[in-house]
């Protein structure tokens, strides 16, 4: 049996106060096994992004606990959360989030720079990752010289650079056409297989749901399996 | 014509939502309008003060003088008729001169004083060469109003004939006609005479004169301006008739004036009417008209060679007024340059603020467009808002200006108000149009590149236009200078509002903008180079900061505003410091040392001994005694010149110069004993009338042969005078000319204390005092205040530009930083990265801006004619005020240290999760 990498228990998250407050997460509890790909689906406003933020330590719940790779995320201070994101949790943004003046290789190397990985090792790792995402020939190109799909592949490579245990992707194919989106989804599935990374991805895409090991459905701030 | 439809709720809603930026725009407009509105009337007031000051300090140069020959007094059957009513004639002459004046001119002159003076006579007794003159003074109170003196011994001068013989005829060639005079107590003591004594006098033909002392008087008010016309009536005046001479004078009365006429030949007595200017009646507005009237008066005056009794007019007042008008024009033009600099900085900051506002409003404006609002309607709505803000703020600024200044000028406020009113709608409409236009970025890479190149070309065209305008302005400034053309006359303050002068006046401002654009052209390349270096380094924060800086380096407006404002602030500081340096140098040249002690002739102080005493005081480096004679008569091979003659121990003088910042005079080493060509002398002349190599002659008193001089080198500019002759004291003494020092120059830190103690009987001129007085002169003080104020305002505008630029880039910057934080960047590291992004343009502003400003000062200092305002002979050397520029640069760098933490504190309140995918999920 595979151990759980993520454990969420009794999480509540409200935004605002008084009558106008929004209860984004209501008593959410679930576990994610290590090395699996979990799709988080639901309508807009159902709380998917809020849940991903809470799991990744980008936001703090009002109640409940989140444990990632044995660390209680909800108990960490700012620096602890930074360390968590630096080493064990990575993100893929819908809008890629690449640094425009850096090449694809340099963008991929950003987490390694933050971790102060020696240059030689960093370059080797970047080369490996670009090869993994199929962009070895585009290492020297800047984001504006790449297509949307290629940029998202670079983003995935960057997310994997620091060898995270958990990769969180929020609508990673939201800005891509169907074909390109499919290749990115396949890439994420491949990453789970080859790197043993746990992927928690929010999506509307039925293909992605099919690729996932498990689907969590969200409705009005609550999760159902 | 379709009128734009205004949706008032939208106007009100946008104004409420963006009240902060709008208030900021209003504050900038109000402050700059206050400065622009108050500076011209304040300068006009200082110009009026300067004109009055010039008239007050012009001395006899400011007087308007009317001469007229006497009517001949020959009797029909030979001899000369005594004219008993000569005093009344003099009074009539005074009235005739007064009536001949233009009413406008008369209104700015004081009541006249008629003065009758004899030729210079020689006192034949005593060893020291002394001269003597007779004088009759009468003011507007009439011939019998000589109540200005108290007779302490004897009585007023009386006629030399009894009343029944008052109109007698005196044969030609008779004995000297007796004439009675009164003497001041000091002059009587100097001559050693008492009432009833005769003064042994001869004229230049050695004809004896019969001058008897009737009484000794004391002036009731020795400060009465009337005495200024003949100061030797009150006390001996040294050097008035040549080196080593002392002039004394005898006062005539209405009763003795007819005898004085007979005591001299027909035209030997000079009669004149002097009008002194009334400073309070003059101002910069009337000065021009008065100058014109004076020029006309002199042009229509009878020639002095004409043998009739018509009025011959003389005055230097027109030159005095023209000179001060030139200074006023120079100060006005320099103030225009400073105001143009402030306006340029303000307009750039207003453009930046409008751009920021438009970016903040892009979404609501785009939404309004999507709801069907046309661009003209949007533009009209934005114009209503910005015009209201600009007009109200400008009104507040002008109202405040009216409170602090004697008037208000709206002319210079117009560009600021216009920029504030137009920039908002311009940028807002542009952003709305861009946000809603259908055209998308082409997928084709070549097409995208073509679009990018088109944008670059458009930007380059604007930059080239600015460069061409700046070059044209600099060329115009160098070719015609900042002063109005002489043909235009003295146009008074703020004549630079005309288009012809606007281009040169804007040269530094345009130069700063052009220079800033040139520097900013280098910024992207610099940041890319920094990024390449940072990526090779093992410092992740440097790499991220450099990456952000490279990504934002092409945003031109924020760094343009910062660099231009910093450059213009440094320019203003340098301009002020250069003017101040000119004043300081001028004070050194005028005084010649830290202090100058001028002997009071009446006190009889031994200046050599005084120099020795002062030199022994603690803190005194040098104390050198010299005889300084202004207007000494020196003849060249072909002309008579009247330079300042300085007789001094040459070696001591050189040692003294070495303790001052005054230029060294190595030729002083050439002075020494007389050689075959005569006594060595150093000469200096503004017009070339005295040149090294010339042979000169120094006339001596009486029959003694003139002393030959040989000009062996160039003299230092002693006292800032143009024409100077310096001779070694020992050599001149050896040549038989008695040297009586009347000046002591003192240098050293203890000078003030040394001259304050034990210097009775001398007039002390302290360099620090002269400098203080000149700094406080109206035009100079006004210009310096404006320079410092402009620098402060420009620095504030530059810092505001930094803050606005930071605010403009903040959303994108912190979004990137938030993404980096999702990769593990800590908050404090994010602050360093943000600082790294902001630093390159700020560093360019902090370092390149001031250097550009100093360069502009070097390029324009000459044509800006600072010498005119500071009263220097030549352009003062550019003084770079590092004491002001260093804090200026530091202020920009320190501002980054404030902006970044403030930004971080503001952004910290936002959830990091927002970056993941705002609004969804």
From TrEMBL, chain A:
Cross-referenced Gene3D superfamilies: P-loop containing nucleotide triphosphate hydrolases
Domain ABC transporter as annotated: residue spans: 6-224
A single MF term (Gene Ontology): ATP binding
InterPro entries: AAA+_ATPase, ABC_transporter-like_ATP-bd, ABC_transporter-like_CS, ABC_transpr_LolD-like, MacB-like_ATP-bd, P-loop_NTPase
SMART domains given in the database record: AAA
The keyword DNA repair appears for this protein: no
A Pfam family assignment: ABC_tran
Entries under SUPFAM superfamilies matching the protein: P-loop containing nucleoside triphosphate hydrolases
Keywords: ATP-binding, Nucleotide-binding, Transport
Record PANTHER family: ABC TRANSPORTER RELATED, IMPORT ATP-BINDING PROTEIN
Protein name per the record: ABC transporter ATP-binding protein
Source organism: Phytohabitans maris
Lineage: Bacteria, Bacillati, Actinomycetota, Actinomycetes, Micromonosporales
TrEMBL record, chain B:
Name recorded for this polypeptide: ABC transporter permease
Database matches in InterPro entries: ABC3_permease_C
Region (Disordered): 148-167
Superkingdom as given in the UniProt entry: Bacteria
Transmembrane segments: 337-358, 378-404, 410-436, 457-477, 509-535, 556-577, 786-811, 832-860, 880-902
Residues annotated as domain ABC3 transporter permease C-terminal: 791-900
Membrane topology: Multi-pass membrane protein
Compartmental location: Cell membrane
Alphabetic keyword roster: Cell membrane, Membrane, Transmembrane, Transmembrane helix
Organism this protein belongs to: Phytohabitans maris
Major subcellular location class: membrane
């Amino acid at each position: 049996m595979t151990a759980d990498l993520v454990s969420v228990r009794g999480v509540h998250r409200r935004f605002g106060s008084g009558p106008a407050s929004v209860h984004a997460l209501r008593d959410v509890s679930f576990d994610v096994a290590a090395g699996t790909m979990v799709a988080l689906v639901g309508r807009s406003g159902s709380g998917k992004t809020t849940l991903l933020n809470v799991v990744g330590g980008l936001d703090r719940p009002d109640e409940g606990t989140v444990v990632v790779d044995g660390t209680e995320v909800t108990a960490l201070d700012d620096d602890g959360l930074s360390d968590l994101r630096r080493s064990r949790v990575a993100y893929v943004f819908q809008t890629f989030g690449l640094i425009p003046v850096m090449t694809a290789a340099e963008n991929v190397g950003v987490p390694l720079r933050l971790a102060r990985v020696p240059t030689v090792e960093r370059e080797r790792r970047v080369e490996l990752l670009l090869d993994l995402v199929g962009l070895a020939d585009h290492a020297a190109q800047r984001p504006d010289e790449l297509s949307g799909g290629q940029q998202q592949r670079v983003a995935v490579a960057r997310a994997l650079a620091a060898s995270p245990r958990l990769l969180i992707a929020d609508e990673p194919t939201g800005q891509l056409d169907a074909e390109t989106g499919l290749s990115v989804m396949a890439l994420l599935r491949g990453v789970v297989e080859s790197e043993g990374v746990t992927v928690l991805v929010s999506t509307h895409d039925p293909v992605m749901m099919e690729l996932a090991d498990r689907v969590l459905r969200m409705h009005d701030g609550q999760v159902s399996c | 014509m379709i009128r734009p439809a205004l949706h008032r709720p939208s106007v009100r809603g946008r104004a409420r939502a963006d009240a902060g930026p709008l208030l900021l725009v209003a504050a900038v407009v109000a402050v700059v309008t206050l400065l622009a509105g108050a500076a011209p009337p304040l300068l006009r007031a200082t110009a009026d003060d300067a004109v009055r000051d010039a008239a007050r300090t012009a001395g006899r140069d400011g007087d308007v003088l009317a001469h007229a020959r006497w009517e001949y007094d020959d009797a029909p059957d030979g001899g000369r008729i005594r004219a008993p009513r000569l005093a009344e004639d003099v009074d009539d002459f005074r009235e005739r001169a007064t009536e001949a004046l233009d009413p406008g001119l008369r209104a700015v002159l004081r009541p006249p004083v008629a003065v009758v003076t004899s030729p210079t006579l020689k006192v034949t007794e005593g060893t020291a060469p002394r001269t003597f003159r007779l004088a009759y003074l009468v003011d507007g109170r009439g011939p019998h109003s000589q109540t200005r003196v108290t007779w302490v011994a004897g009585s007023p001068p009386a006629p030399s004939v009894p009343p029944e013989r008052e109109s007698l005829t005196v044969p030609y060639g008779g004995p000297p006609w007796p004439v009675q005079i009164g003497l001041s107590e000091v002059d009587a003591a100097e001559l050693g005479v008492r009432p009833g004594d005769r003064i042994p006098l001869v004229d230049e033909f050695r004809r004896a004169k019969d001058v008897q002392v009737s009484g000794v008087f004391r002036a009731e008010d020795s400060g009465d301006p009337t005495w200024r016309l003949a100061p030797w009536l009150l006390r001996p005046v040294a050097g008035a008739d040549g080196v080593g001479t002392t002039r004394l004078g005898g006062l005539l009365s209405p009763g003795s004036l007819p005898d004085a006429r007979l005591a001299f030949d027909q035209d030997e007595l000079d009669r004149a009417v002097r009008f002194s200017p009334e400073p309070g009646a003059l101002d910069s507005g009337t000065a021009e008209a008065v100058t014109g009237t004076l020029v006309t008066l002199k042009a229509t005056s009878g020639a002095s060679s004409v043998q009739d009794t018509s009025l011959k007019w003389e005055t230097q007042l027109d030159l005095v007024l023209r000179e001060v008008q030139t200074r006023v024009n120079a100060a006005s033009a320099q103030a225009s340059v400073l105001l143009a600099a402030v306006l340029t900085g303000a307009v750039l900051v207003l453009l930046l603020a409008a751009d920021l506002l438009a970016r903040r409003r892009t979404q609501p404006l785009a939404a309004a467009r999507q709801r069907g609002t046309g661009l003209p309607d949007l533009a009209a709505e934005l114009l209503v808002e910005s015009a209201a803000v600009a007009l109200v703020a400008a009104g507040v600024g002008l109202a405040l200006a009216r409170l602090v200044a004697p008037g208000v000028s709206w002319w210079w406020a117009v560009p600021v108000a216009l920029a504030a009113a137009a920039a908002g709608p311009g940028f807002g409409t542009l952003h709305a149009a861009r946000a809603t236009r259908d055209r998308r970025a082409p997928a084709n890479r070549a097409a995208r590149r073509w679009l990018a190149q088109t944008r670059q070309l458009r930007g380059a065209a604007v930059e080239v236009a600015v460069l061409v305008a700046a070059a044209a302005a600099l060329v115009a400034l160098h070719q015609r200078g900042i002063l109005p053309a002489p043909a235009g006359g003295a146009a008074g303050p703020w004549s630079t509002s005309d288009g012809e002068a606007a281009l040169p006046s804007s040269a530094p401002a345009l130069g700063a903008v052009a220079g800033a654009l040139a520097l900013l052209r280098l910024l992207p390349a610099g940041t890319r180079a920094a990024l390449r270096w940072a990526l090779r380094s093992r410092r992740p924060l440097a790499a991220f900061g450099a990456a952000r800086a490279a990504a934002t380096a092409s945003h031109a407006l924020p760094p343009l505003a910062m660099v231009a404002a910093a450059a213009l602030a440094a320019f203003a500081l340098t301009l002020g410091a250069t003017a101040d340096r000119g004043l300081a140098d001028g004070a050194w040249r005028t005084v010649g040392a830290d202090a100058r002690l001028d002997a009071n002739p009446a006190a009889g102080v031994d200046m050599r001994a005084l120099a020795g005493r002062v030199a022994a005081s603690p803190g005194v480096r040098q104390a050198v005694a010299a005889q300084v004679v202004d207007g000494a008569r020196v003849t060249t091979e072909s002309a008579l010149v009247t330079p300042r003659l300085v007789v001094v121990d040459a070696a001591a003088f050189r040692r003294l110069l070495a303790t001052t910042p005054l230029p060294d005079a190595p030729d002083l080493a050439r002075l020494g004993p007389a050689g075959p060509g005569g006594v060595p002398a150093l000469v200096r002349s503004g017009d070339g009338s005295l040149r090294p190599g010339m042979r000169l002659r120094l006339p001596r008193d009486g029959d003694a042969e003139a002393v030959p001089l040989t000009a062996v080198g160039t003299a230092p500019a002693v006292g800032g005078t143009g024409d100077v002759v310096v001779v070694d004291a020992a050599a001149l003494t050896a040549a038989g000319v008695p040297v009586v020092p009347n000046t002591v120059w003192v240098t050293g830190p203890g000078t003030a204390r040394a001259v304050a103690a034990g210097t009775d009987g001398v007039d002390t001129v302290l360099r620090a005092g002269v400098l203080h007085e000149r700094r406080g002169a109206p035009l100079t003080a006004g210009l310096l205040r404006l320079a410092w104020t402009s620098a402060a305002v420009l620095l504030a505008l530059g810092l505001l530009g930094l803050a606005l630029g930071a605010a403009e880039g903040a959303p994108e910057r912190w979004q990137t930083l938030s993404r980096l934080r999702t990769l593990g960047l800590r908050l404090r590291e994010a602050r360093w990265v943000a600082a790294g992004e902001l630093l390159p343009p700020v560093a360019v502003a902090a370092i390149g801006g001031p250097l550009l400003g100093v360069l502009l000062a070097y390029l324009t200092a000459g044509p800006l004619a600072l010498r005119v305002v500071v009263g220097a002979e030549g352009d003062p050397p550019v003084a770079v005020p590092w004491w002001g520029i260093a804090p200026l640069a530091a202020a920009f760098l320190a501002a980054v240290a404030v902006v970044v933490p403030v930004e971080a504190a503001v952004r910290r309140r936002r959830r990091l999760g927002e970056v993941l995918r705002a609004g969804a999920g």
